[in-house]
Structure formats: structure tokens, C-alpha cells
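FORM 7B: Structural annotation worksheet

SECTION A. Query
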Amino acid sequence: MTGVGSGKGSNPGPSIPLNNIPERIPHDQAAKIKGDTLKIKGDTLKIKGDTLKIKGETLKINGDTLKIKGDTLKIKGETLKIKGDTLKIKGDTLKIKGDTLKIKGETLKIKGDTLKIKGDTPKKKGDTPKKKGDTLKIKGDTPKIKGDTLKIKGDTLKIKGDTLCF
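SECTION B. Predicted structure
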């Protein structure tokens, strides 16, 4: 297959040979690709523009590095799964909306002046969800938090362990 957008039931218009894609498509000729599958092979895929919308149940990206540059990255959905040794996010603000953010790995490093966690974490017991304020859960042998100040707002701070050092 030499063109793009040739999935079942699609009407993508004329097929564009991959070796003849222009460096820049004029704004009034915006590319619209429809179909069940779009496969792109190569070392680099660059997409420039104000908005990139990808709709579907699953988006799979395989590779050593995924770089996204922009003022805002919005991800909506029930589950975002990222597998790899390192996830690096650089920017002034990282906003995550949803009931649960799960990160599995040996190390989570967050660098920045402020880490804000907002929202209620529903705790299901039977069929009745119980709301329990803002929640940050850290499981592991040694959570490390670097910085001059750790601010915790709330009624209770619970610390469990054999040794508490100040």
C-alpha cells in the first residue's frame, strides 16, 4: 500500500504516495485521514499545528522516546498506560484529571517548585462510593521528596514506620 487512509469503509480522497508528501500542506488543504489503521514507519514523525486530536479506544506508541512539546497536553480517558524505564515531563504545570493515576515502577521523580493534587478519590465499598478528600498515596520502601518545604494541608498526617528522623 503506497497511500494513507485506506481502511474499510473510508473515503479518504486521492491516495498520496508516501514518497511525495510535501514538507508543508497549506492550511486550507488540511489533511484528513480516515480509516481503521494508519501505519507510519520511519525514524521521525513531526506534526506541527495548533491542535492534534486523536480519537479512539487505544493509542499505542512504541519506541525509545516520545517527545511532546507544547503549552498544554490534555489526555482524557479512563486509562493512560505508559510502559518504560523513564517518563520525563518538563513544564510549569502538569494537570491530571480523573479518579486515579497509577504509576508502577521503582522510581518516580518530580522536579519543580510545586506539586498540586486536587480532587476526591472515591473509595468503593460494595456498591456505594465514599468520598475522602484529596489523596496522594505513595507505596514503596523509600519515598524521596526533595525541596526546601513540604506543605501538607489537611486534618491528619499519617506516617507509619519503625524509624522517624527529623
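SECTION C. Observations
The chain has no helices and two strands. The first strand starts at residue 122 and ends at 125.

SECTION D. Sign-off
Analyst initials: ____
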